[in-house]
């Protein structure tokens, strides 16, 4: 696997979007450049490439797979040269990212309905209808599609690398080798050649906080035993203080500080210097890895057989797009514990209930593949965005479904079913009643119960009676009536989880 992490999104605001004009008429190239000369998308300009034949266009796409949009004429060397190139780009090169806008001055030779149904193109325009305004609109749509595809692809590639790194650290059974592996992988994942330090916190109550360096990557091994304040600039020390005080990760413009707590409540900070600017996807996946490290840190001395099955998936615990803070990380922890409580009450044996506890936090893992523009949209989603948003159920199931481990197979099923409703009105498959697995029904209820009683940026926690009224209203609609009864019988125990594992 390529060691370069998240490369598609490591682009500055000035990095242009590549647009390839493929047309055998030179004036078409000139007009296109003139009309789109000042065009910008997400503050990035366009960079134009020109090809005057289909064959030349194919070679440019082969040589530069980061071309975002191909403006392609149908008739060039032959009457259907453009269409043949579409097939070759998609099939021979396997490039499904580039957005292909077919332009034709002879629509009768390539009827729109036939072309769209038979070829993997993204838009079809007659040259005569492309006013400047329509041309810019077409390009906006194409670039949005390319951006969203790259976000999903970047997420998947990054996830694979996080899995590889996690598997390595989970195999470590001794504390120092574990820490060394963590430093190694963090340096690789953050693409830095700078300093990577592990600082163990000795006394969080001290007026003058000390940050002794316990471990450092080469070539900075000589820093071990020194104080971080002797090595790092004041601005970076401020990040260490913030991370310790807030018990949270801190991402600066040129450095990152990751916070961990072991099972003895000892705190440690991982400092990564000269990491460079990272985007939302990179930050999200680094946080996934960091959460994984924290959990592995706490479970370092557990039975290895349990770790092999448990920790392979627990690294994903905060992988859902919304689990990027201490607040929401505790949400998924509580969902797992509540799912275990309800599962036992519903008749699961101890082992099955434990597996449910471990698998339940992964219910929204598919959201890591949803573009931030859709995931974090403040208003209502368009019908098209709703389809993409709802795809997180299938995405999560697909991410986990290829695993041979029963635990992740269970998590895959939960991903797929936790938005199904008892009355059949849910998605993605409209399952009804007991056609939804018990585990899927349990997690659906546990997730909603905890979310309603928790603080979110968009709402205050609901009071007990309002939550009970809502659940009663949704009994037989969203939720299994039997599970509602079991929850009501154990209401105090369920609420106690929020006290034991608070959001803040």
The protein's oligomeric status is single chain
Helicity range of the residues?
40-55%
N-to-C series of helices and strands: EHEEHEHEHEHHEEHEEEHHHHHHHHHHHH
Report the major sheet. Answer: 6 strands, mixed
In CATH terms, what is the fold-level topology of the largest domain? Hypothetical protein af1432
- Overall mean confidence score, pLDDT: 79
How would you classify the helix and strand content by structural class? Answer: alpha/beta
- CATH superfamily of the largest domain, by name, is Hypothetical protein af1432
Q: How many helices does DSSP assign? A: 19
* Assigned CATH architecture of the largest domain: Orthogonal Bundle
Number of individual domains: 3
Q: What CATH first level of the largest domain would be assigned?
A: Mainly Alpha
Q: Report the end-to-end length measured between terminal Cα atoms.
A: 38 Å
Shape: globular
Radius of gyration: 26 Å
């Amino acid at each position: 696997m390529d060691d370069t992490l998240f490369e598609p999104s490591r682009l500055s605001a000035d990095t242009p979007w590549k647009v390839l004009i493929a047309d055998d008429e030179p004036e078409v190239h000139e007009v296109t450049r003139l009309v789109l000369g000042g065009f910008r998308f997400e503050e990035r300009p366009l960079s134009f490439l020109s090809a005057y034949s289909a064959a030349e266009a194919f070679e440019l796409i082969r040589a530069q797979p980061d071309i975002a949009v191909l403006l392609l004429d149908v008739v060039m060397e032959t009457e259907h040269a453009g269409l043949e190139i579409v097939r070759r780009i998609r099939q021979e090169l396997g490039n499904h990212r580039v957005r292909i806008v077919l332009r034709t001055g002879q629509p009768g030779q390539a009827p729109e309905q036939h072309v769209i149904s038979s070829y993997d193109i993204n838009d079809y325009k007659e040259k005569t209808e492309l006013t400047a305004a329509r041309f810019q609109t077409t390009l906006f749509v194409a670039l949005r599609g390319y951006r969203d595809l790259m976000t999903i692809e970047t997420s998947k590639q990054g996830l694979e690398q996080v899995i590889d790194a996690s598997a390595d650290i989970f195999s470590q059974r001794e504390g120092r080798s574990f820490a060394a592996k963590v430093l190694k992988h963090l340096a690789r994942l953050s693409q830095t050649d700078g300093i990577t330090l592990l600082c163990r916190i000795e006394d969080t109550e001290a007026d003058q906080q000390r940050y002794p360096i316990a471990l450092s990557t080469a070539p900075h091994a000589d820093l071990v035993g020194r104080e971080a304040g002797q090595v790092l600039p004041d601005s970076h020390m401020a990040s260490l203080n913030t991370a310790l005080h807030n018990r949270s990760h801190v991402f600066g413009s040129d450095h990152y500080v990751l916070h961990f707590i072991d099972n003895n409540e000892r705190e440690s900070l991982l400092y990564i210097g000269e990491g460079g600017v990272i985007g939302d996807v990179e930050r999200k996946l680094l946080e996934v890895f960091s959460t994984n490290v924290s959990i592995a840190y706490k479970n370092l001395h557990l039975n290895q057989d349990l770790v092999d099955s448990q920790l392979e998936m627990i690294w994903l615990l905060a992988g859902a797009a919304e689990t990027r803070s201490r607040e929401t990380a505790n949400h998924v922890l509580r969902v797992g514990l509540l799912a275990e409580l309800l599962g036992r009450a519903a008749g699961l044996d101890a082992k099955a209930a434990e597996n449910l506890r471990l698998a339940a936090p992964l219910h929204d893992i598919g959201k890591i593949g949803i573009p931030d523009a859709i995931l974090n949209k403040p208003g209502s989603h368009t019908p098209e965005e709703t389809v993409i948003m709802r795809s997180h159920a299938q995405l999560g199931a697909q991410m986990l479904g290829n695993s041979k481990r029963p635990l992740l197979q269970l998590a895959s099923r939960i991903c797929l079913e936790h938005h199904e409703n008892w009355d059949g009105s849910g998605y993605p498959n409209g399952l009804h009643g007991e056609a939804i697995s018990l585990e899927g029904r349990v997690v659906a209820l546990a997730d909603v119960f905890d979310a309603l009683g928790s603080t979110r940026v968009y709402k205050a926690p609901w009071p007990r009676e309002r939550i009970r009224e809502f659940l009663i209203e949704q009994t037989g609609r969203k939720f299994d009536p039997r599970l509602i009864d079991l929850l009501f019988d154990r209401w105090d125990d369920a609420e106690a989880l929020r006290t034991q594992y608070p959001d803040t």
